[in-house]
Amino acid sequence: MHVRRRPTPEAIGRSRDHEPEPARGLGAPDPAPQGPEGDDPFAAQRTRFAGRVIDPLPPSLQYEMRGETWEPGCPVPLGDLALLRFNYWGFDGEVERGPMVVNAAVAEDVLGVFRELFQARFPIRRVLLAKRFRPNADPDSRGSVTASFNCRPVVTPDGPGDTFSQHSYGLAVDINSLQNPYVREDGFVRNRFARPYVDRSQDLPGMIHQGDVVVRAFAAIGWEWGGDWSSGKDYMHFSLANR
Questions:
Q1: How far lies 242's CA from each of 170, 177, 221, 223, 224, in Å?
Q2: SS3 106
Q3: Does 50 have pLDDT greater than 90?
Q4: Furthest-apart CA pair in the chain: how many Å?
């Protein structure tokens, strides 16, 4: 599967800003709100969504990704990917900022999803670029990550498979991986720290539920939710191809 974007001449190499922003490092947060607007005259600006699409990927990021999350033989070239940078609400109620690499063909749509989540104040633990997949790594982690592109195989509670994940195309996003685990049909979860979240009747910060703002926002761009799968539930996972 190889998705090609349809660039226009003016789109090549441009950075599409949705709110003005100063130059910052990839993961540097924007200033967080400081209290009521009367206490901080800039509070309104700091709580507005700020997001941008950077297409193509900066050369420095391409260099970092080679041999880490991308290598020759991956199903999409680096030139088909774009970098998103956007604000989100952290679990502590502060405005944070994070980077995400996605397929350039869906970059604007995915940025729109995170705009909706920001406006709804849906909490996200941490938006980070993916790290190199290591099949023998310890599956137990207290970390909770929201990320997209990573050239790696499908991973289930039983371990890695032998086909490319949709993340390898930049056409899937995982949100709050700890709070929304991949649960096997018998209830087994690979990461023991995620097991308290198997009971989906709970309404804990960062959890995704049927019909909520996260599911609706992705459905609006034609993406489907792994929480709707009939054989095992991947509650963190949204993808264009529904796999």
A1: 13, 17, 13, 7, 5
A2: helix
A3: yes
A4: 57
